Amino acid sequence: MARFGKGGALMLVVWLAGCGLSKPSAGPIPGAAEIESVAILANQARQAAAHDKLIAWADAGSPVAQRAIAQGLLMTPGHDSVATAWLVRAAEGGDGEAGFLLGEAYRSGGLGLKADLPTAWRWYRLAAEHEHAKAALALARMARNGDGVPRDVHLAAQWLQFASDRGNGEAMFLLSNAYMAGEGVPRNPLMGRHLLEMAADRANPAAIQALSMAVENGDLMTTKNPQLAEQLRIEEGHELKHRWGDY
Predict the structure, then answer these.
(1) I need a surface site. Which of 44, 114, 143, 183 has the fewest CB within 10 A?
(2) Which burial class, exposed, middle or buried, applies to 242 when counting CB atoms under 10 A from its CB (0-12, 13-18, 19+)?
């Protein structure tokens, strides 16, 4: 049997490892960066030795390796349930990305799961507790819209601040809007503009568009500058084309 034939053999090895029946030794568990590098070799280059290392590290309790195994399984159809089990182990072990992926799955009904917004909230919350900015952004959106939890614009603003403090440009843009409107925070146009510029500096397309309009037309905080506005529109188009999926 080919080792990676349609993922079948890999599936068996990973499943045995998860059950504690196959425990290849890979030595001490390395840091997250090294595990992520090995995961690329395992999941994209399909290197058998890299897979063996991931399995050993996952079986030894590495949440990063457990999540990497799940992501590898999800590259081949039909492995959703086993991948989900690995994600649960990883998230409960402290991997923020695994918690975020589970939150996404329960929010949208992915991975063969039934959509369940309160459960999505709990996984997003666990991920945010491990410093995951996108999970915090998801919590902010759910709180603002009342998805799975009571609508609470103050709580939404708190999660936007949390995500902004961790460098998320989309959260900065939304928090900028909140300060402009006084939604969940005291109205503060100066803070709103500061956050808008920070979001634009992080290449957030919506922020770049809003800033270009302000620069084109001029306002109390902006000198009219059509040339800069055009430059910003070009940058916005580039970000929309190449990086929109990152937000």
Answers:
(1) 114
(2) exposed
Both tokens of 95, joined, read 């991997």
Token output for 108:
């949208």
Amino acid at 34: E
Query: Does pTM top 0.85 for this prediction?
Result: no
Cα of 191 vs its chain's centroid, Å:
26
The CA radius of gyration of the chain, in Å to the nearest whole number, is 22
Share the mean pLDDT of the chain.
85
Question: Rounded CA gap, 243 and 3, in Å?
Answer: 35
Cβ-in-10-Å burial (0-12, 13-18, 19+) of 162 comes to buried
Put residue 147 in one of left, alpha, beta given phi > 0 → left and psi -120 to 50 → alpha: beta
What is the CA 17 to chain-centroid distance, rounded? 27
Per residue in 133-154, pLDDT (tens digit) is 999 999 999 999 999 999 999 9
Q: How far apart are CA 81 and CA 115, in angstroms?
A: 15
How confident is the model over 61-70, as pLDDT tens digits? 999 999 999 9
Proportion of the chain above pLDDT 70, given as a percent: 76
Q: For 208-222, how does the pLDDT look when each residue is reduced to its tens digit (9 = 90+)? A: 888 887 766 656 566
